[in-house]
Design brief:
CATH architecture of the domain at 114-195: 2-Layer Sandwich
Shape: elongated
Order of helices and strands: HEHEEHEEEE
Helix content: 10-25%
CATH topology of the domain at 114-195: TolA/TonB C-terminal domain
Strand content: 15-25%
CATH class of the domain at 114-195: Alpha Beta
Radius of gyration: 58 Å
Structural class: alpha+beta
Oligomer: single chain
Distance between the termini: 143 Å
Strand order of the largest sheet: 3-2-7
CATH superfamily of the domain at 114-195: TonB
């Protein structure tokens, strides 16, 4: 490499380096100028005034609502469909009765008990809905006042009819049995209730 070529390549490099140094010096001098004066703002202090906090209750009575001019119409009574049931009730007790009634009032002479009031049992709704039929025999004691007590179920193939039969027997009324002019209790009296659905003829 010749000296002339080396000098020709170093000259542009030196110029570029000198130019960069001058540019850096100019930028530094520019940033070193004092900042301009600015206007200061003072934030005022916030002072909360002293206040007394009180609780107020609304004691006013509510206004009475206006009465309606006309009363609302009566709602129609609902109609329920009931199955066509024909309850065939057997009221004949299974004990023979020899009735001897004489005199006014009933107890003036001896005689066996006599049924006066017998109530038909209510057909159970579950049995009616299922179309069930059957019978139920109950046993009870006729008291000296003609009422029934100690009612028990002795024969009831369909147990669904038992409760209704017992309730019906509890409402029976009898003329009590009279011996030597005195009423006495009669136990072992039976009554068979027969439950049958109505049949279309």
């Amino acid at each position: 490499m010749s000296i002339a070529r080396l000098i020709s390549s170093l000259a542009p490099a030196a110029l570029v380096t000198l130019g960069l140094l001058l540019l850096m010096h100019f930028l530094i001098l520019r940033n070193m100028t004092e900042p301009k004066e600015t206007t200061e703002f003072r934030i005022p202090e916030i002072i909360m005034p002293d206040r007394e906090i009180t609780t107020e209750y609304d004691t006013r009575k509510p206004d009475k609502p206006d009465e309606p001019e006309e009363p609302p119409p009566d709602l129609p009574e609902p109609e329920f469909e009931s199955p066509d049931i024909d309850t065939d009730i057997s009221f004949a007790p299974q004990i023979d009765t020899g009735i001897q009634v004489s005199g006014i009032g009933g107890f003036s002479s001896d005689g066996d008990y006599l049924p006066i009031v017998k109530v038909a049992p209510k057909y159970p709704s579950r049995a009616a809905n299922r179309g069930l039929e059957g019978y139920c025999t109950v046993e009870y004691t006729v008291t000296v006042t003609g009422e029934t007590k100690d009612i028990t179920v002795v024969d009831c193939p369909q147990s669904i009819f038992a409760s209704s039969s017992v309730k019906a027997a509890a409402k029976f009324k009898y003329k009590p049995k009279v011996v030597d002019g005195e009423p006495i209790e009669v136990s072992g009296v039976r009554n068979k209730f027969t439950f049958q659905m109505a049949t279309d003829e």
